[in-house]
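Priority: medium. Attachment 1 of 2:
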């Protein structure tokens, strides 16, 4: 899915520094597109790449200067050389380079000094300058973002926070200096929250831009005489033949023309079990050749490989994905204009109307209604509203972290409450991602430990994941150790060697049939194992069947209970996997998942997510591999398995289950519902109190004292209510 097309070829492109989330990227993009010097602009969050089309008749240098100024006003910067900055006369001072850290440090230092002066030294009056300085530093911190929002004719969280702190300062300077401390605490918490959210996003940033490094930059091109010449992959075209050696990654997509081998395709399909491939089979750039030498006919150049398409799809999905407006930003967009309009009506329209009716306006009339308008602004000061949400989200983030869940922003708690359908990758998500022996069948006089002993002896020198699973099982079950001589690996087929003086093999059924007389009984066992989702390794000894070992990627222990818990929440479940349909269906049955889509490439997973969303469903995607990245981005909320996930999945996901425990997923959804219920409780309570005091102020029955109570008292109560989220609870409120 391509990113949004520009109206023309970009005049210039830059990397944007400090873009912490897709929302931030969209806000910067929209701000740039509103500049008169700019015809069009596009900022792709996945790569932080900004493309700009300059307006007709505008000097490119002037356009660059305007764009740079706009980006900086949004809290980000452009990656420019020193020479370019000097040419634009836009060098940043030391303060500009460290602005956020300096202002946050000032707020923290002044806040601590104020708290010590007031509560330790008992000098409340001396604490006031410290609190005011902390609040002002915080206002300077958010001012660029707030003004940028106002220029876009929106009222976001930064505008709301600015009104809250300014309102608190007005209350303090008009008679109640005790609220200066509230202003300082509110703005400091907001700064810390903004920094923490940005830090969590920056922590995992950059791996999408490194995806292409999975494919080698050099290919061994086969020359007419059978030799090879090393050529940069950018110079290798469709139709060339390249040679891929054991242990190397495939540089370009193609079809095998000579040889056979096993390929680890985890970067593309997400499946941990290497795929055996021979002549005529397709191979993908970035996949690892684990055994034999193969010649590959190139079918796609560097920009059109499957790996390149994955990167493009991630970029396209992030460019297309609708930005999430947080709960408070949506509220602020309506609340802030209403408050301002209400104050203007009370302070200007009402006295004018009354003056006309009375036959003239007096100074006393203006003073009375002007005072009421100021009182209304104080009443409407959204300190309680603003602080309730970050405190609730920070408390929920803390609780989630203690559960082993990293949530990259409070907004995702809100999104999670709306999810109706969850899609799961199979390998590494629903399963352990590591093949293990699930069954051993012995034939003739052999016993199961004997079968494992022979299989382990042959597989001991192999690096294949299935071989490692057999060796590990033999070790754990204390199967008698045996030595094998003359071991030979037959790529894509199996292993052959001499054990206790007899020729033995382990591998595919077809390989066993070449070396032994295979009975219908053996074929039936192999077929049954395949239907259950296992890979059957047939063991032969002295030309006779000796046993069969079933190896499979076992479901996680907690997966079944997690699926049951999610189903109880009325969330429908679906498996999306690149594995074959038989294996996928077997795992789905075991876990109680009704819907299965198998043998999918990354673009097909992405397409399936889009189909679900077009049907009106809010969709979550849970995955752990590079191949899951486009779907993780496209989904309304992307969840990855954390520590075991690829860097790319960690970057693009919104939530990470750090301890790799799928049981944390239903806990996260339960916490999300509880968090948003607490946020709504706080807002409803704060608005209810303010509505009562508003009526009293409008009628002249209450003044600044009641306004201070409506702000400070309510703020304290909602903070305490929000902090409840740090404690575990089975309740939804």
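Attachment 2 of 2:
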């Amino acid at each position: 899915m391509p990113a949004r097309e520009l109206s023309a070829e970009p005049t210039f492109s830059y990397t944007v520094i400090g873009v912490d989330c897709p929302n931030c990227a969209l806000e910067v993009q929209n701000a740039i597109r509103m500049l008169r010097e700019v015809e069009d602009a596009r900022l792709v969050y996945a790569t932080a790449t900004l493309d700009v089309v300059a307006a007709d008749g505008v000097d490119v240098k002037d356009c660059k200067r305007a764009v740079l100024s706009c980006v900086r006003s949004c809290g980000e910067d452009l990656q420019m050389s020193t020479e370019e900055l000097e040419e634009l006369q836009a060098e940043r001072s030391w303060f500009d380079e460290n602005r956020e850290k300096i202002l946050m440090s000032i707020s923290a230092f002044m806040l601590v000094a104020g708290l010590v002066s007031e509560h330790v030294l008992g000098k409340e009056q001396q604490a006031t300058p410290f609190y005011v300085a902390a609040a002002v530093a915080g206002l300077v911190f958010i001012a660029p973002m707030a003004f940028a929002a106002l220029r876009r004719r929106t009222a976001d969280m930064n505008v709301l926070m600015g009104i809250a702190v300014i309102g608190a300062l007005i209350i303090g300077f008009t008679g109640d200096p005790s609220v200066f401390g509230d202003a300082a605490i509110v703005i400091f918490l907001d700064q810390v929250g903004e920094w923490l959210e940005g830090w969590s996003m920056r922590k995992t940033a950059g791996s999408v831009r490194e995806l292409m490094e999975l494919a080698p930059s050099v290919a061994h091109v086969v020359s007419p005489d059978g030799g090879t010449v090393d050529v940069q992959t950018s110079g290798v075209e469709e139709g060339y033949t390249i040679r891929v050696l054991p242990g190397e990654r495939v540089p370009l997509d193609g079809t095998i023309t000579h040889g056979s081998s096993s390929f680890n395709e985890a970067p593309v399909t997400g499946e941990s079990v290497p795929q055996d491939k021979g002549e005529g089979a397709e191979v993908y750039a970035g996949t690892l050749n684990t055994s034999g030498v193969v010649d590959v006919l190139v079918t796609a150049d560097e920009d059109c490989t499957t790996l390149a398409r994955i990167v493009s799809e991630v970029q396209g999905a992030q460019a297309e994905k609708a930005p999430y407006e947080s709960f408070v930003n949506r509220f602020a967009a309506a609340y802030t204009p209403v408050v301002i309009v209400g104050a203007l009506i009370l302070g200007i329209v009402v006295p004018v109307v009354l003056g006309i009716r009375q036959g003239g306006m007096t100074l006393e009339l203006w003073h009375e209604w002007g005072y009421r308008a100021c009182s209304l602004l104080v009443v409407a000061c959204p300190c309680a509203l603003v602080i309730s949400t970050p405190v609730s989200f920070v408390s929920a983030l803390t609780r989630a972290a203690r559960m082993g869940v990293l949530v990259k922003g409070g907004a995702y708690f809100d999104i999670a409450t709306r999810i109706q359908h969850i899609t799961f990758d199979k390998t590494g998500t629903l399963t352990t991602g590591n093949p293990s022996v699930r069954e051993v069948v012995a034939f003739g006089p052999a016993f199961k430990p004997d079968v494992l002993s022979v299989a382990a002896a042959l597989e001991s020198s192999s690096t294949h994941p299935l071989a490692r699973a057999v060796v590990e099982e033999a070790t754990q079950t204390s199967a008698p150790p045996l030595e094998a001589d003359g071991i030979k690996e037959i790529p894509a087929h199996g292993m052959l060697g001499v054990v206790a003086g007899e020729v033995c093999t382990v591998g595919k059924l077809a390989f066993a049939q070449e070396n032994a007389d295979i009975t219908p009984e053996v074929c039936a066992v192999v077929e049954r194992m395949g239907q259950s989702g296992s890979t059957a390794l047939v063991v032969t000894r002295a030309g006779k069947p000796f046993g069969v070992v079933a190896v499979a990627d076992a479901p996680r222990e907690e997966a079944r209970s997690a699926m049951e818990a999610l189903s109880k929440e009325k969330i429908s479940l679906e498996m999306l996997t690149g594995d074959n349909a038989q294996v996928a269906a077997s795992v789905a049955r075991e876990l109680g998942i009704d819907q299965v889509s198998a043998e999918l490439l990354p673009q097909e997973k992405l397409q399936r997510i889009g189909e679900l969303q077009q049907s009106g469903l809010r969709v979550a995607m849970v995955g752990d591999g590079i191949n899951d990245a486009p779907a993780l981005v496209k989904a309304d909320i992307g969840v990855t398995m954390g520590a075991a996930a690829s860097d790319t999945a960690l970057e693009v996901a919104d939530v990470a289950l750090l301890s790799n425990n799928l049981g944390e997923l239903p806990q996260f959804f339960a916490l999300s519902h509880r968090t948003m219920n607490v946020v709504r409780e706080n807002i409803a309570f704060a608005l209810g109190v303010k509505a009562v005091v508003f009526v009293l102020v409008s009628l002249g029955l209450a003044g600044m004292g009641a306004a201070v109570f409506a702000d400070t008292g309510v703020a304290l109560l909602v903070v305490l209510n929000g902090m409840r989220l740090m404690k575990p609870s089975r309740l939804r409120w």
